[in-house]
């Protein structure tokens, strides 16, 4: 099994949305997701539509809109995402559970190649189905914290200025206050 660019970009984006949820960021715009991972924006928009149709992400339209996970990260199996985007995990059709195809060998029951590929399929499925998006997000966050790196999507949001005659500045998204987010309560000596 080889993960396509579509599958790779989708998984990287879901991990980022999982991180955003963990740092209490309710929505992330496609442009920000694309910039963070250096992905083509138009291609990512298509992928986000696929993820939305599959029920992995939800979106909100409008000036302050964006994407978020449609369900808790702990309920999203990596295997389920890969299957939706890439199709069956089996390296050959005669060992697929979801897209079985009869092979050309005369004795499928005793075919050594089929037995080997069945083990390959089971190993891949076992790993991908064992882990959820929450598991991957947790490990990613743990490593970022261990290495003292800033957590993505936890920096203060960009601000929008009101007309020039006043110096008032307000957050782009009023529901998000990074001062009260996860980081401020996580490590007392960590500064944003």
Any chance you could write out the topology, listing elements then pairs?
Blueprint: H1 5-22, H2 30-37, H3 41-53, E1 57-60, E2 66-69, H4 78-86, H5 112-130, H6 133-146, E3 159-161, E4 169-171, H7 182-186
Antiparallel strand pairs: 1-2, 3-4
Helix pairs in contact: 1-4, 1-6, 2-3, 4-5
Task: Write up what this structure looks like.
This protein is mostly helical and about 190 residues long. It folds into two domains: about 1-75 and about 130-190, Arc Repressor Mutant, subunit A (Orthogonal Bundle), CATH 1.10.10.10; about 90-130, no CATH class. It contains seven helices and four strands. Strands 1-2 form a two-stranded antiparallel ribbon. Strand 1 (about 55-60) and strand 2 form a beta hairpin. Helix 1 packs antiparallel against helix 4, helix 2 packs across helix 3 and helix 4 (about 80-85) packs across helix 5 (about 110-130). It is elongated. The protein starts with a helix and ends in a 6-residue tail after the last helix. The model is unreliable at about 160-190 (pLDDT under 50).
């Amino acid at each position: 099994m080889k993960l396509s660019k579509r599958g790779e970009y989708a998984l990287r984006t879901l991990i980022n949305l999982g991180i955003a949820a963990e740092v209490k960021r309710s929505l992330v715009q496609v442009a920000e997701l694309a910039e963070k991972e250096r992905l083509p924006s138009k291609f990512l928009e298509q992928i986000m539509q696929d993820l939305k149709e599959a029920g992995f992400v939800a979106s909100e339209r409008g000036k302050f809109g964006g994407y978020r996970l449609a369900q808790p990260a702990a309920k999203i199996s990596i295997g389920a995402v890969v299957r939706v985007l890439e199709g069956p995990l089996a390296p050959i059709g005669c060992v697929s559970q979801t897209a079985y195809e009869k092979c050309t060998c005369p004795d499928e029951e005793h075919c050594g190649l089929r037995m080997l590929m069945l083990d390959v399929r089971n190993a891949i499925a076992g790993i991908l189905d064992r882990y959820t998006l929450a598991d991957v997000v947790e490990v990613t966050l743990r490593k970022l914290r261990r290495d003292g790196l800033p957590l993505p999507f936890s920096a203060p949001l960009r601000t929008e200025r009101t007309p020039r005659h006043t110096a008032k500045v307000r957050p782009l998204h009023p529901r998000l206050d990074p001062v009260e987010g996860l980081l401020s309560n996580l490590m007392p000596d960590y500064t944003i």
